[in-house]
Amino acid sequence: MPEAPDLYVVRNFLEPRLVGRTISSAVERKPLVLRNMTGEKFDADISGRTITGLARKGKLLLISFGDERSLVISPMLTGGLRYCSPEDRMQATTILVFNLDDGAQLRYFDQKRMGQAYYLPNDQLDQIVRLENQGADVLDSPMDLDEFTAALKPFRGEIKGILTRGQAIAGIGNAYADEILFEAGLFPFKKKSKLSPAELKELHRAVYEVPKAAISVLEREVGENIHKKVRGFLKVHGKGGEPCPRCGTTISAIKANRRETNFCRSCQPGTMFD
Ligand SMILES: [Zn+2]
Question: What is the mean predicted confidence (pLDDT) over 26-36?
């Protein structure tokens, strides 16, 4: 679920609540998600450590414990965080539980265990490929059109795949890629090599406009419920079968590469064989 705008809101909510707090205890409720790279027992090692920073990089969240340890969370499609009281009902999907010294609880849940969490010494952070191998963040100050064109240059194939892979520009996932391509009027499966200068310009504009515009809606609708998936306001993503908000054509839904792509055939014309 979480892409840059979602995690931006989650981070801003959590930062004042987590930084300065000490972990009293931690529980790993289900295996296979946490990669503990410290060589120590997870709960024993993390207990007593104080959270000194919370950062977002693309679609990852980094919790720092001084200069020794970090917890990197990559929620992928189905993971998320919940900030609550220990008395709140424990969801079956909860993977990790952190008890904080002020009595609050932070939980990581994952419906399909597609996400990953890495608990590691800081000097091993460079081993996390997704952390190192990302382009400039989509919410950072925008690249100009020339820089953007240069950032896309090494990558081949369909434009949607290039946007979601994160190496050209970080933080865009399946949902916001659909929204960006709708805004730019581009067929999602169009080959990057076939984009005209005018189309690149539209893409550049949409890449920076769409995620930023989403933040204020998310801040309003998510509030304290950072585990909530807020997608209803999107224009085409998740709206297959509904009318296009621009022209009324039925929005298409195509399953490819294990994910659904939504777009409007009239506003985003193209064919698979272009
Ligand atoms: Zn349309």
Answer: 94
Give distance in angstroms: CA of 160 to centre of ligand 1: 18
Task: Look up residue 19 and give its two tokens.
Answer: 């930084």
Expressed in angstroms and rounded, the spacing between residue 267 Cα and the centre of ligand 1 is: 4
Give the amino acid at 191.
K
Tell me the CA–centroid distance for residue 236 and ligand 1, in Å. 9
* Ligand 1 mean position, distance from CA 263 (Å): 8
Domains held by the chain: number: 2
- The pLDDT confidence band at residue 133, using thresholds 50, 70 and 90, is confident
| Ligand 1 center from residue 238 Cα (angstroms) | 15
Measured in Å, residue 186 CA sits from the centre of ligand 1 at 11
Q: Report how far ligand 1's centroid is from the alpha carbon of 171 (Å).
A: 26
Q: What confidence tier does 76 reach under pLDDT thresholds 50, 70, 90?
A: confident
CB atoms within 10 A of CB 208: 19
Cα 249 to ligand 1 centroid, rounded to whole Å: 5
Q: In 3-state terms, what secondary structure has residue 71?
A: strand
Residue 27 predicted with pLDDT over 90: yes
Find the helix packing angle between 174-184 and 197-222, rounded to 10°: 130
| Predicted pLDDT at 132 | 77
Rounded Cα gap, residues 241 and 138, in angstroms: 29
State whether 123 and 154 are in the same domain: no
Give the list of residues 6+ apart from residue 145 with CB closer than 8 angstroms, or none: 200, 201, 204
Domain that holds residue 181: 136-263
Confirm whether 268 is domain-assigned: no
User: What average pLDDT does range 51-65 have in this prediction?
Assistant: 95
